[in-house]
Design goal:
alpha+beta, 2 domains, five-stranded mixed β-sheet, 7 strands, 12% strand, elongated
Length: 370
Amino acid sequence: MRLADFIERHSAAIVDEAEFYASSVSEIAGRLDKEALRDHMPDILQVIVADMRSPQTDEHARFKSLGRYPPDSDAARTAAQTHGGLRAKVGFDIVQMISEYRALRASVLRLWADSNQPADPHTLEDVHRFNESIDQSIAESTGFFAQEVERWRNVFLGILGHELRGPLTAILMASEMLSGMEMDQPISKNVGRIINSGERMRSLLDDLLDFNRTSYGMGIRISRAPVDLAQACESELELIRVTLPGVPITFAATGDVHGSFDQSRIREIVWNLVGNAAKYGDRTQPIEVRLTGTATGVELSVSNSGDSIPADRQNELFEPLKRAGMQHEEPRGLGLGLFVVRQVAIAHGGEVDVESADGTTRFMVNLHRE
């Protein structure tokens, strides 16, 4: 008897063993009913049997070994993919989910060996195809398991960000009310620190919520309105100069820099880029901020002197939770600054680029007028 036929004939016993193993992997599994424990195991076995019976070329085998579908496959979401997603949803961890397949493989091969089936020329090929199908199912389940975990992680981050904003706003309002009262200098100084720290926390929460929105493919929300970007940038730079005393910052605007933009978001770009220039660059050299009107919009650039960024790391700068090495201080924040800069640029129909060579780094943000 071929192994595929054996699995089909004994599928009930195989699934029973898989169910028994699944019930023992964690306390969570102990609370699941029979149907939830068996989940898609019968369907997965059917897929494995069908795969073992289907002809397979060397190219198909190569694609499957890489965890990919053959090029002529019309596969949609499989039973293994659904199984992985559901196991993540009910609380299994990745090791427990994969161990189910290990138990399934062991169960089939043990029952096959105990049946004393006479060896034939197809035995080795059948066992090889079976192991290949199990590995393919593991790859599919693992991929969807990871997607489900990521989805719930983003849900958690979104809820956390929104829930923290309430008490933080209350702290800031109370602190600002205290700052307006007459008080001794030491108390006034500490109230100022509370306000500055609270604003920093609010900025971090805003970055976190922006990251959360883009993780769902929603992009960063902007609200366009007519604005003079030169005036907006100058106002932001005045605030930055207060927070970065001793760091020389120059600003120049040329051409038509009026248009319909989200002023708050553009000021956020200026804050992030100038802040990064101060962190990573030579603080004794000026940070140059330029605003240039173009035929379709505005280009905002920020340049600084200092160590050049290696070419192979420049694309990584815009990825979330990535950061370059800091020269002047310990890492702070979430590593989302440049990620947010790019997302704001994209929301304005533009993009952001970086040039870094010969001791000069320049970030260029293109923003389209609506």
